[in-house]
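Notebook entry, structure prediction.
Reason for the run: the old model in the group folder had no record of what sequence produced it. Starting over properly, with the input documented here first.
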Amino acid sequence: MPPDRCEPYVLQSAQNGQSRQEPGQISVQPAQVEWPCGDGAEPEPEKGLDIPSGEAQDLHKILVAMQHSLTQIGSKIDSLSYRMDRMTECLDKHAERLDQSARRVSEVEDGQTELATSQVKLNKELNSLRLKVDDLETRRNNLHIVGVAEPTAIDNMEGFNERLLVQLLGRTTFSDLFVLETAHQSLATHPLPGAPPCPIIPRMLNYRDRNAALHRARELKTLQYEA
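New structure, fully documented this time:
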């Protein structure tokens, strides 16, 4: 076993009468100093941290407050995380609605293109029908005179037909505003010699004169014209 303590040795010179040895000799003597030495040395006791009780209570309060604050922060983080999840769901729903709206807008644009094409077609048909209606309204004031040969040399066809109608039906049949707007022969082919002449189609400006002429012609039944 190693010694609990070991004594240091120092070399001393035998001078000044401090030793019985002769001058010049060196002696080894134990010194009066001791310290721990070797594995079996006894350790010195450690000194603990001496904290006053008041400061310890303050530190405890601070730690408790910090723990409470951390708990509150964690709760707020959980609340924020929940809100973020809700916002993500809302954004997903809005994105889906935007996609649906984009599809609907595309469908509306396609339908608008089809409507524009249909509108052009309908406008053409409407113009054609309008022309037909105008023609029918024009024919509403027309008369159809058959059996009267058109003179070969005549400058005013309307005047000729006015005189013809007055002679056939009488002046009292027509109003004071009796006027023929136009008069022409039908577009039939020129008749052969001995065949009946082409019909004459006068158009009156007032449809009442036209109706009166038809009514008077039914009453007379037979009309005679003297060229």
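Summary: Confidence is low (pLDDT under 50) at residues 1-19, 33-38.
The old model has been moved to the deprecated folder.
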